[in-house]
Design a protein that fits this description.
Rossmann fold, 2 domains, 7 helices, 5 strands, binds NADP nicotinamide-adenine-dinucleotide phosphate
């Protein structure tokens, strides 16, 4: 009986905590509100929604999409979906082993999928620079148009302890913001060179709102 009361007490404390209200209640509420807004916008006469068109795939021009963090989660799901749509999917990941695994997985489902994997660590400027050169070289060697059509900045981490990148930035800031910014800046000429409209998709999270000592961190 005492144990049950203790557990109940702990549960009550959790329900009264800021974390519970922020993550379980407010987060769910904002998610439902977003879905509701999406639904109403789609069904109203004044629609500001731009539906994504299927890519134009031809013998001479196969759209190229670069996905960071393509070895798991949302990145892997995007890689599966885009390869099904006919994109040449460039998978970017940290681990060569995980990259081979996802390539095999996609090939098992779609034998004729167009895939190319690059090992890149977004925490390292050198790795990003090397990737840009390798990507350009690969496009040239494959006799493809020197452009990309889609860049999905998806890779991200939720670091629970503070560690630094080779350049001395916080790892989470390096991976989630600085790395994708540098990558986008370096790949911009390839995106702009696209003969069809190109697009950049940034996948992010509002977890940054939990940051309490941001000013302290910046100083
Ligand atoms: N899942 C959610 O509920 C959720 C909610 C809000 C926002 N998001 C955002 O959605 C994105 C994807 O989330 P997810 O849940 O699919 O994540 P995930 O399954 O943990 O996948 C993250 C991917 O990023 C890669 N990655 C991490 N650090 C990297 C680095 N330094 N260089 C290159 N690649 C790196 C990982 O590779 P390794 O396997 O080598 O680590 C992995 O492939 C993230 O930006 C996240 O902030 C997710």
């Amino acid at each position: 009986m005492v144990a049950i009361m203790r557990e109940l007490g702990k549960a009550m404390c959790f329900v009264c905590s800021v974390e519970f209200w922020r993550m379980a209640v407010l987060w769910t509420f904002s998610l439902l509100t977003s879905y509701w807004q999406l639904y109403t916008t789609r069904h109203s006469s004044k629609s500001y929604c731009f539906p994504r068109c299927k890519p134009q795939v031809s013998q001479t021009m196969r759209p190229v999409s670069v996905i960071t963090g393509a070895t798991s989660g949302l990145g892997a799901a995007a890689a599966h979906a885009l390869s099904r749509e006919g994109f040449y999917v460039v998978l970017v990941g940290r681990s060569s082993c995980l990259l081979s695994k996802i390539v095999t997985e996609i090939k098992t489902q779609k034998e004729d999928a167009y895939l190319k994997a690059f090992q890149v660590d977004l925490m390292s400027f050198q790795s990003i620079l090397d990737f840009k050169s390798s990507l350009q070289q690969w496009l040239l060697n494959s006799e493809m148009h020197l452009s990309i059509q889609l860049l999905i900045n998806n890779a991200g981490i939720l670091a629970t302890s503070s560690r630094l990148t080779p350049e001395g930035y916080d790892e989470m800031l390096g991976t989630n913001y600085i790395g994708p910014f540098c990558l986008t800046k370096l790949l911009l000429p390839l995106l702009k060179n696209s003969p069809i409209p190109s697009r950049i998709v940034n996948v992010t999270s509002f977890t940054h709102r939990s940051c309490k000592n941001y000013t302290e961190f910046c100083t």
